[in-house]
Design a protein that fits this description.
mainly alpha
């Protein structure tokens, strides 16, 4: 009975991680409110999640805001660039889907493939910002190569992000309170395997 109240009990450890994910999700959401800061907020989310995945967390609040400041410039630049590319690809797909010809099908398939490659690359960008102090060129190249070299892990990252969001939106709304933290934690475990970080 006394083991239940020990701090190293697996139940307490699980509840501690769950609490950390709630805090991270709330911090991430609050720091994304002026949409421009979503990149820095997501980079900070991954920075803390990578530490959580290795049990090196410390103080969540101070770690998050330190990482937010450290990744502000690159995170914001990457985010704004990705938003522009995403809007361009989405408008292309929307436009090409209305063309009723063989050329329209080819253009739609091409835009769809570019969209998939974009998503596969995008899923690695913010974890890599959190891990390495690379320039933009190297960052995008590493994300692109990692996505193509590890299609299974990339698919797992995309499915886990989409699945957690879908469960929160369509099945059980309380899942949304841990959605960002849980997604980043799962991705951090995968990134740790891929980059031995």
């Amino acid at each position: 009975m006394s083991k239940i109240f020990q701090w190293d009990n697996p139940v307490w450890a699980f509840l501690g991680k769950l609490t950390d994910m709630v805090i991270l999700t709330v911090l991430w959401m609050l720091c994304c409110i002026p949409l421009v800061t979503a990149g820095a907020s997501t980079s900070a989310l991954y920075d803390v999640s990578l530490k959580l995945s290795k049990n090196q967390e410390g103080y969540i609040f101070s770690s998050f805001f330190r990482a937010f400041g450290r990744h502000w410039k690159r995170g914001t630049a990457v985010w704004l660039g990705c938003v522009c590319v995403g809007v361009f690809l989405a408008s292309d797909i929307c436009l090409y889907s209305r063309i009723d010809s063989r050329a329209g099908v080819v253009l739609l398939a091409s835009a769809g493939m570019l969209g998939i490659i974009f998503l596969m690359t995008f899923v690695y960008l913010f974890p890599l910002i959190a891990l390495y102090d690379w320039g933009m060129k190297r960052l995008f190249a590493a994300a692109f190569v990692t996505a193509l070299k590890n299609p299974g892990w990339t698919l797992l990252m995309l499915v886990s992000a989409g699945g957690i969001a879908a469960v929160g939106i369509f099945v059980m709304a309380p899942v949304l309170i841990i959605s960002a933290g849980l997604t980043a934690y799962i991705h951090a475990k995968i990134i740790s395997i891929l980059f031995h970080a």
